[in-house]
Amino acid sequence: MVLKDYIKSRQELVDSYLKKYFSSEFLPERLYESVTYSLFAGGKRIRPVLAIASFEACGGKAEDILPQASAIELIHTYSLIHDDLPAMDDDAMRRGKPTNHKVFGEAIAILAGDALLTEAFVMFTEGERFSPHAVKEAIRILADAAGPRGMVGGQAEDILSERKEPDPRTVHFIHTHKTGALICASLRIAPVLAESSHEIIESLGMYGEKVGLAFQIIDDILDVTGDSDSLGKKTGADSEKGKMTYPAIYGIERSKAAAIELFEEALSAIEFMGDGAAPLRSIAKYLVQRTR
Amino acid sequence: MVLKDYIKSRQELVDSYLKKYFSSEFLPERLYESVTYSLFAGGKRIRPVLAIASFEACGGKAEDILPQASAIELIHTYSLIHDDLPAMDDDAMRRGKPTNHKVFGEAIAILAGDALLTEAFVMFTEGERFSPHAVKEAIRILADAAGPRGMVGGQAEDILSERKEPDPRTVHFIHTHKTGALICASLRIAPVLAESSHEIIESLGMYGEKVGLAFQIIDDILDVTGDSDSLGKKTGADSEKGKMTYPAIYGIERSKAAAIELFEEALSAIEFMGDGAAPLRSIAKYLVQRTR
Q1: Which residues between 2 and 41 in chain A have a beta carbon less than 8 angstroms from any beta carbon of chain B?
Q2: Please, what's the b/e burial string for B89-121 (b: 16 or more CB within 10 A of its CB; e: otherwise)?
Q3: Preceding peptide of B28 cis, ω within 30°
Q4: Exposure of A234 in the CB half-sphere (CA atoms within 13 A)
């Protein structure tokens, strides 16, 4: 299967699961609108697609992991809404559209983020496909990766480090936590749910760690070299805000080289896995070569 | 056992569990300080104490449910931090201390809330005391009560209804969702974890629903009649902000009568339960008669 088709078909599965899940509205209407506005704003569903690919590499079927894979997208979407807030990164555009708080106001944007984060744990417990033990373990991995020891810690350090002298240790902390942790969790959750061997869980986790970091380095590079139209958001924002990024420390070329090295390490972590891991290999390549 | 001693001993169990849990710091330090500032700001631990009392009424031991009971306090604390934000209720004082964003700034306050909400689900999966099936079910109840169909929905309606003509349906929606849902969940989670009968789960849930609503009505009344020193926050704030409250619709006397009626309904829901439910009966009385 061509990679583009693979990704598209998995994205569609996630989108149709999310559409169906959120077809029953909740009150107040304005909160529902705010939540669905950001959730269906054209996200690429990278984390759910990675979780599905990881699950398929373990011999599972995409349909079976949709609630858990889609729950990760809820967490990712909440993090974008909160990151864009005036008190945080103060961004006006996201995926070519006004950010949530620009449309719904700050209060509802904060609550829409809270709603998505909390609902992720409802969604995660949907279905009876997996053993409750595996679900409990996967919830622990996901919450740990999204919380203060993971994504939230990375975001806090990112905000606190603005306009400070860039240093390699801090930028590594920010990237592995802010972006890396949730991507890594997306990869680990699948073999945990599939009750795969310890070796497979660790290998897919390692792949996730490397790909997650590479993904954020590419993101930093695109903020310098990318085209704002195709990215759907303003470029040059990182340097304007004095963000601690890879290019700010290492320059574009060394940052690119670091991403490619991480990509190769990701591949070697799952080398021993069979053809089932082919989509993961292609996705890694795609994420490192992407231009938006 | 005297009620005061009962509550105090359970509060102490929760406090010492939380202290121990948060004794291992996370980075950045500023986020850790912000999280622990609000978590140890003198909260009365009402929700965890209710969860423990519910568990004891089902024949369980307080110590066994500490992770799950304490996780509810994390969710409650996050909701207070976010509610106090300038974009929300814009409160400067809470429990006699400056609110989180007054001390740490808005960005870190938002992230501290996010951190507490997420960490609650890590904490909830601590320990091996309960069957994973029961833990999964309890997580679902908790997340559902805290999310858009529960607490977050109530908070959104509360914000959106400010300065509107008060109406009974809206104020009932706000109170049952904003405060009632999480209190109700605190009561339901314990029998689910204890794998009690359906009848007991529903009865404790009913008690929780009634007590939760009564609790919020009393809160509204205290905002009008209470003493700001003993409450640790400004009184009269609801009417200043044009909040939709019970006293605003029904006046003080009818609101008091409604709280007492709910208290009696709460007692009758658990009437068939034995002496183990005695603390729940006393706590309900205490919550309705409280002056702060």
Answers
A1: 26-28, 30-32, 35
A2: bebebbeeeebbbbebebbbbbbbbbbbbbbbb
A3: yes
A4: 14
List the beta bridge partners of residue B94. B97
Contact criterion met (CB < 8 Å) for A27 and B136: no
> Which superfamily is assigned to A3-287 in CATH?
Farnesyl Diphosphate Synthase (1.10.600.10)
List % helix, strand, coil for chain A (3-state, nearest 5): 75, 0, 25
Cβ of A267 under 8 Å from any chain B Cβ? no
Can you give the residue ranges of every domain in chain B? 3-289
Place of tokens 């599939």: A194
- A291 class by beta-carbon count within 10 Å (0-12 exposed, 13-18 middle, 19+ buried): exposed
Q: How many Cβ pairs closer than 8 A exist between chain A and B?
A: 160
The beta-strand segments (E) located in chain A are 93-94, 97-98
Among chain B residues, CA nearest to A104: B160
* Amino acid at position A112, single letter: A
Read off the pLDDT band of A291 (50, 70, 90). confident
List the one residue out of B199, B182, B215 whose CA is nearest residue B284: B215
CB neighbours of residue B254 within 10 Å: 12
In chain A, the residue whose alpha carbon lies closest to the alpha carbon of B155 is A111
Amino acid at B193: L
Q: Which residues touch A266 (CB under 8 Å, ≥6 apart)?
A: A206, A207, A210, A211, A214, A284
Q: How far apart are CA B83 and CA B89, in angstroms?
A: 6
Q: Which amino acid is at B272?
A: F
Contact residues, chain B, for A88 at CB < 8 Å: 107, 110
- Where would I find the H helices in chain B? 3-21, 29-39, 46-57, 66-84, 100-104, 106-124, 132-146, 151-160, 168-175, 181-193, 198-225, 228-231, 237-240, 246-269, 278-289
Helix (H, G, I), strand (E, B) or coil at B61: coil
Q: Do B31 and A148 touch (CB under 8 A)?
A: yes
- Tell whether A252 is within 8 A of chain B (Cβ): no
Whether A228 shows a pLDDT value over 80: the answer reads: no
CB contact under 8 A, B118 and A146: yes
Closest chain B residue by Cα to residue A87 = B107
- From first to last of its 292 residues, what are the pLDDT tens digits of chain B? 689 999 999 999 999 999 999 999 999 999 999 999 999 999 999 999 999 999 999 999 999 999 999 999 999 999 999 999 999 999 999 989 999 999 999 999 999 999 999 999 999 999 999 999 999 999 999 999 999 999 999 999 999 999 999 899 999 999 999 999 999 999 999 999 999 999 999 999 999 999 999 999 999 999 999 877 777 777 788 988 999 999 999 999 999 999 999 999 999 999 999 999 999 999 999 998 887 7
- For the domain with range B3-289, which CATH number is right: 1.10.3720.10, 1.10.600.10, 3.40.50.10350, 3.30.470.30? 1.10.600.10
DSSP A64: G
